[in-house]
Hints:
The chain is α/β, with parallel strands linked by helices. The protein folds into two domains: 2-119, Rossmann fold, CATH 3.40.50; 133-198, Orthogonal Bundle (Arc Repressor Mutant, subunit A), CATH 1.10.10. 47% of the residues lie in helices and 16% in strands. It has nine helices and seven strands, in the order βαβαβαβαβαββαααα. It has helices spanning 11-23, 36-44, 63-73, 90-97, 108-119, 144-153, 159-166, 170-184, 189-198; strands at residues 2-7, 27-33, 50-54, 78-83, 101-104, 133-134, 137-138. Strands 2-1-3-4-5 form a five-stranded parallel β-sheet, sandwiched between helices. Helix 6 (144-153) crosses helix 7. The protein is elongated, with a radius of gyration of 19 Å.
Amino acid sequence: MTNVLIVEDLDIVLDMLKTAVEEAENYTVVGTTKNAYVAQSLCSMGNVDLVLMDVCTEFEASGLKAAEEIKRSHPEIKIIIITSIPETSWIETARAIGVESFWYKHACSELLAIMDRTMEGESIYPDTTPAVQIGKANSFDFSKREIEVLRELTTGATNKEIADALNISEETVKTYIKNALIKTGFQNRTELAIQAHKTGFVMKL
């Protein structure tokens, strides 16, 4: 029997995940929490084989940061990152941390199959992030650098702050923002930043 810890801040999703896991013959839920940092403590107490870890959890606790700490302290515990947010950097971050698998919240039957394969030693990751519409543009219409600028823009950073963070010039930042405005059809940087964050396309934890 595989002991599962579920980390999810939305009650309806938590209930769905708990029900799906409990109905599976080879899994049992040994704990649930809405906060990723609490999950670290629960893993330290033992009796956890697999963690279903949401990225954005209660009180802004990062599931990715918690997963990194869990893998460092308890490498034997397998982790599946679960999210509905298509932030483009999270798959890469999860791989770098050493998380076994990554799942976008869809049908529970698909999740159970991923759980089975993960426990058998496979590493399951999606090929791409889900496509989202941002104004007139599709999320795949942006270059990697444009996405990096957008991510910084959503924090309210100035052009200089974005330039310093990405080690590029302010003029280059202005060019990337101008191009993004043209692609999306938005009128100003504020609207661009709000919509880029609202769609989940970019989100800086």
